[in-house]
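<context>
A single protein, sequence plus fold
<sample>
Here is the protein in question:
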Amino acid sequence: MDTKPSSDSSQSNNSWLHPSRWNVGDETKLEAGLLIHQHYRLEEEIGQGSMGEVWKAVDLIQVEGDARDCHVALKFLNQDFKQHPDALKVLVREFHRYKKLNHPNIVKAYGLDRFENTFFLVMEFLKGMSLKEIIQNHPNGLPLKEAEPIIKDMAHALAYAHKEGLAHLDFKPGNVFYESESKHTKVIDFGIARPLEQSERERTKYDLKNLGALTEAYASYEMLLNLDPDPRDDIYGLACVTYGLLSGKHPFNRENAIDAESKKRLPKRIKGLNHQQNKALLRALAFKRNKRTRTVDDFLAELFPEKKPKYLLVFLVMLLGIVAGFAAWYQVKQQSEEAPLAAEYKPENQTEKTETGILPKQKQCKQSTVVNRLLKTAEEYMREERYIYPPVENALEKYQKVLVVCPNNEQAKKNLGKIADIYEGKAQYKLNKGHISACQDNIKNGLRAVPEHSGLLALQSRCQ
């Protein structure tokens, strides 16, 4: 069906292209048992949204063919939205987005059709329930282990859409569906999705910017200000949904981002998540875009960090014990052979005299309680895998402060190298997956630790 009129005059000759001109009195009554083109028979209404209502229907052709599953979902423009002059354009664009987005975690659309004075989409029928129902049924939230596959499925759907150049922009619990049979999660309703590239939006004859159909409680700060779309808009919605799934509550008590930011609202920590995981959620819920998690992949990596094999952890614990024992023995030996050293660090250009002469600066640094405190904190952050995030409370910044005080501190240099190696591995993984932007981000993070890191610099030329 060609829905693109060639001129204004052709539009005026085709009243069906103008939903706003339809006679309200001629509205088709949708009810169970209604036959549509002798092809579909309506069974029951299964959902409603701002633009339409969704019905479960039997595909009679599939019944004739003795197919295993004969049900489809039909999405009709509702009576109120049909009066919008661009209603049909919205439906047509939604259909083409579904045809473009071929992903196991995104609902499929089969066709676009018209029945009397009503247009509808023919879509995949999903068995199960929306996350809105799941959250309502679990007022204290789901355990992380149970919620993890759901979170990953909906995140993969968004990551794919972003890769294809689209932002969903209406990501909320009611638009995420959990299939009870397949145990898969699917994202639905791309009705107000928009292209991420400005050039694509300019080529689109009708942009949904002014449609005003977003859900405020899950819309980002920038969406409420009507700014251009960005993947981080969906990340805010994803974080809100994830928070609700794990806690049973909206992070800001359903206040929109602008109101919550003005009142300096902070989401409560979720029991069952460790410090790093709560920080990951907090960063994805940042009100301002420049402070929010950049990509869906980053959000998943921070919320579900890769676990090290248990045997490796046992080996590392044993190795740390041996090193700690040797260090303690060496310290006692040194203290018995040398004069007591200063407890606090002296300024870089200042030396300290002892009975045996001038005390080397490097030994002064080793004994500094300031340095020891920084190293201890940095080690804790390394164990928690807080390598460079969150700001201030991370290993990178602590080790860098140690080197400001003691430029030759070997422990700080070694662990900065380890951080750079970790991000080299992350960058290589992202490059292998074809995620160039994420690869570049990991290279950038690694070079913060070791600017001249050979592995990262070599990857940099490949990750373009």
Notes: The chain has a mean pLDDT of 81. The two ends are 41 Å apart (CA to CA).
